Structure formats: C-alpha cells, structure tokens
Amino acid sequence: MSAPTSPELLDTVPPDDGGFAALGLRPELLTAVTALGYEEPTPIQRAAIPVLLEGRDVLGLAATGTGKTAAFALPLLDRVAGARNRDGSPAALVLVPTRELAMQVAEAVHKYGRPLGIQVVPIYGGAPMGRQLSALERGVDVVVATPGRALDHLGRGTLRLDSVRVVVLDEADEMLDMGFEDELRAILEATPTERQTALFSATMAPQVARIAGAHLRDPARVEIAREPMAAGTVPRVRQTAYVVPRAHKLATLGRVLDIEAPTSAIVFCRTRTEVDELTETLAGRGWSAEALHGGMGQEARDRVMRRFRGGQLELLVATDVAARGLDVEHVSHVVNYDVPSAPEAYVHRIGRTGRAGREGAAVTIAEPREHRLLRNIERLTGQKIEFAVVPTVADLRARRLDLTRAAVQDALVEAQTNAARLDRFRIVVETLANEFDLMDVAAAAVSVAHEATAGDAEEDDVEIPTVTVGEYRGGSRTAGRFGRFERNERPRRESWRDEGGREGARESAREGGREGGREGGREGAPPDSNVAPARRASGTPTTRGGTRERVATAAPATRRASTSAPGGRRGSARRISSARSRTRRGCTRAPSGPSRSPTGSRSSRSPNRRWRR
C-alpha cells in the first residue's frame, strides 16, 4: 500500500439542490429511500455519498445520529450491485463495535438494498454460530460484523475476504476504545489492497488517526461540524451536573428522576454489577426499568430493546458497550451515574438523546474527585456543563404535591366524560359534608391519596450536602474544599469483602466467543487500571448465599468491625454504588450506607417514590 498522506478536507458540503436524486444513486436506491420516507439527505450524506460513489477512500467525522449509516450504506450498495461475486463471497464488509449496532446496520442495509436483491448477513458474538455458517455458505453480498466474531470466522476459514471491494469501519473510535485495534489490523490485512475503505468516527482520537494513516489511501476527509447555536437559543441537549459525596449518589439520582420525570431515559453505569443492582432498586421504587449489559444473553437483550423501543420501559440501565449504537429517537434523558473517564465516551453517551431535532437532557451525578473530568469534557465539546444544586427536601415535596394534584385533576377530567366513575364515592362525601366543611373534606381526601402513594417519608427530611465546585483546588480534600459535613450528616465508613479483586474487570467476559470476552472485560473495567489491592477490614467477613457481605468499620484507631444485617425485605442489603475496590492514597474508598428496602411493587408505579440515603 502506498505511503499514507494527509486526508483532503472537503471545505464545503454540496448544496441541497436536488435531494437524493442529485447525488448520483441508482434508481432502485432512490425508490428505496423514498419508500422509507426520506426526503432530503443530511449534511454527512450529501458530502460523503458522491465521494464514495467515485471510489475514493473517505475519513468521515460526524456526531452520532447524523445519518452516517445511510451515508456509507447507499454508495456501498450502489457499487456492490454492479459487481457481485459469482462464488457467493462477500463484496462488502462493514465492521461495527457491538452486536446491537451490527443488527441495526444490517437491517438498514437490507431495507435499502431490497430492490436490488442484495443479500446481507450480520455476524456477531453471543449468537449461534451455526446460523451464521449457514448464511455464509449460501452466499452473501454484504457482511456486517463485530471484529471479534469476524476474526473467529476468518480463523475457521468460513469468511472469505479476498474478493471484498468495499470495507467500512463504523464507529471506529469506539472499536478502538474497546481494544479491537489488533483485530481490525488483522481483518484489513486479509482484504485486497485495492479495496475502497471508509472510516466513520465521532471523534478524531490518536488511534483513529493511526488506523486511517495506515489503511486509507489518499482519503477525502468529510467533517461535519456541530451547528453553532444562535444567540439566545436553547441547546438541544441540556447538560447538567450534580456534584455530591459518594454516599449520597443514590438519593441524588432519585430526586433528580422525580424532578425531571423522564419519559424515556438511559442510565449509564460503569459495571454490570452496578447495572443489575441499580435496576433492581429502581424497579422496586416504582419505575419501569430493565438492565442491558454484555453479561446478558442475546435473547434477553433483544427482549429488553423491544420493550424500550416500544415505549414500555421508562428507564434503560446500561453499560457503555451494551448501549453503543442504540438507535432510539424518543430518548428524553441520558443520566450518567458516573463520569466517564474518557471525554469521548461522554460524547457517545449524550448522543443517545436530542436526536432528530428533538430536545434532550444529559444529567451527570459526579463525585468531587471527578470534577476535573467534567472540565475536560467541557473543553472537548466546547459546551458548558451547568453545575446545579441538588433538589432540596422542599423541592421534592413540592414536586410530589404537583404529581398528586395532576392525578386528582386527571380523575376530575375523566369524570366529565364518565360520571359513573365517581358515583360510588359521592355518598361518602355527602355524609362527611354534613359534619365538616366541604373544603376540609376535600383536603383530607387529597391528603389520604397523597400519603397512600408514599408521600413524605421520614428519611426524605435529610438534605443532601452540596459540593461547591468553585472551591475545588488541586485535588486536596482539606476542610472547606468540598464543603464540611455536620456530624450527623457524615456517611458511615464501610469496607467491602471483595471476591477476586476488582469487580467488573474480573467479573468479565461471559458473552461467549472472542468478541464477547473482549466486550465484557472492557465494559466492566474501571477507568484506573492500576488499582491497588483492597485493604481488608478487621474481623472475619463472611458470605451468605454466594454474595458479598458488607463489614461496617469504626474509626481507624479502634478498627472494630461488625457485620451489617443481611436479609430483610427485597433490596434491603443492596448498595447501588459498585462493589469494586477503589483506592485513593493507597487505601480503599468504600461506599457507605446500605439503601433501605424499596416501597411499592414492581407492577404498580407510584408517582411519589421514596428515595433513601
């Protein structure tokens, strides 16, 4: 291959003067996009499609949700339709980071290429190998694959790439972040050197530049900048951060969800264990929530995504790897239960909301030590993150009263069209009205309804300490830097008995196959890979039922330990913070305070939820 050269930057996007018809696509493809309801190409499509039709390599930089799939799929199909391999080997290969994205891209390519009779097959880890082998043996025009499973098929000799004419690397930055650089190089080396290559990425990380320089020939660089906001306009994605002590993250999440009232939200966690525990607690407190992570079987993941896309779920609690590439337009909120260590990961996360011209909200719950990560994110995105104050007890109670008022108002509106709905209650009101003032009767009825839906719980009287971001200086935790706790507000110190070192990093790769192991390990690992071994608490921690048990530890001087009570109602011994070992200055930073058992049931959502410290 010739020596890499600097990509030619296309300074302008072709004017939108003729829709898709002006881009030079085949009539069959124009028929397909028209049938799918596409009217005008997006900027990345107008810029990339003509260049790809010319046969040039392309380095495309555009944010998630800008129409990249059609930008490479339509010209790919145009080229494949004119030069299909007679032996049934694939003429085009699309590499993507995750199983979900592989299925979505394959579905899109199938829809676009249906008038041309193009055969496409997705291959990815976690799915039966036999079906994929059968599809490849029958013959296929386009293969959409994850790197790990593609390399498995190459090793078996069941995937031939010697006749591939077009290769697309979609979400290249994410594949490289997941550690697939060696796999990508091996796959690309198995393809002809005269192939056409298109690389699409949301960011231009050093790894992306390295791959582009080594495997793209004289590429045209198509970069779609973010549209500048006019003065006085509101950004499509409202970015907010709450900086709170670690012990108060769960309570903060609860209050923020109650105040924001999302209709469809994705809550991002760092590890699978965090995802499972947080999902259980959210579901127990009235939210319709389900988990999505690499440790789940493909059938379970598909079921969860069908429910989320169908509007049956309010909250999808997921890891970065599992949620990568999700194409759901109605996501109203993205919640970061931790701050991503890489700013690029933050960009990918918030790209799930504010799509298709809709407004969205990105909420981040950060610890004081994560303040600098937020500043790095601001520098990368060029957008300010608003540091907000956690809703107070008064805010929470006011919100709950609003929900009660709205519920009563809905009942009254419905009664106007269905008078029989309230008839059986009128006798109660008439009887009480003979003894008490009618206004007092109504107020008492509303009070009963409010309390019955878990109104003001005793533990909600505790204010969540607010950390003043401006007081942060140099990472010091001296008094006054982060705000001082009152004695009765200080979270109890605890330590965890850690089974097998870092949870997540060694809980690991259970997806099956080379790719599944890679995904599982990457998504579970904490950002700091040099984590020192956790210091064990005094006493002898035990396990019950194969689960970790907390050991509450007194002040370091006394080193007394006592075991917290196991059992109790569902979720009573669950902590939402991950049980992974964290260290600061050589000692373990441990989560504090078990969350109490949830109220309400999974089947009946209460508009007023109890959130405990």
Radius of gyration: 27 Å
Largest sheet: 8 strands, parallel
The fourth-level CATH homologous superfamily of the largest domain is P-loop containing nucleotide triphosphate hydrolases
What count of helical segments does DSSP give?
19
Shape from CA axes?
elongated
Secondary-structure content class: alpha/beta
Mean pLDDT: 73
CATH topology of the largest domain: Rossmann fold
Largest sheet, order of strands side by side? 1-8-2-7-6-3-5-4
Residues in β-strands, percent? 5-15%
Total domain units: 3
Catalytic activity: ATP + H2O = ADP + phosphate + H(+)
Family: Belongs to the DEAD box helicase family.
Motif (Q motif): 18-46
Domain Helicase ATP-binding: 49-222
Describe the protein's architecture and organization:
InterPro entries: DEAD/DEAH_box_helicase_dom (IPR011545), DEAD/DEAH_RhlB (IPR044742), DEAD_box_RNA_helicase (IPR050079), DeaD_dimer (IPR057325), Helicase_ATP-bd (IPR014001), Helicase_C-like (IPR001650), P-loop_NTPase (IPR027417), RNA-helicase_DEAD-box_CS (IPR000629). It is an enzyme of class 3 (hydrolase). The protein has 19 helices and 20 strands. With 613 residues, it is α/β, with parallel strands linked by helices. The chain has 3 domains: 216 residues, 3-Layer(aba) Sandwich (Rossmann fold), CATH 3.40.50; 156 residues, Rossmann fold (3-Layer(aba) Sandwich), CATH 3.40.50.300; 67 residues, no CATH class. β11, α12 and β12 form a beta-alpha-beta unit. α6 packs antiparallel against α19. It is elongated. The N terminus is likely disordered.
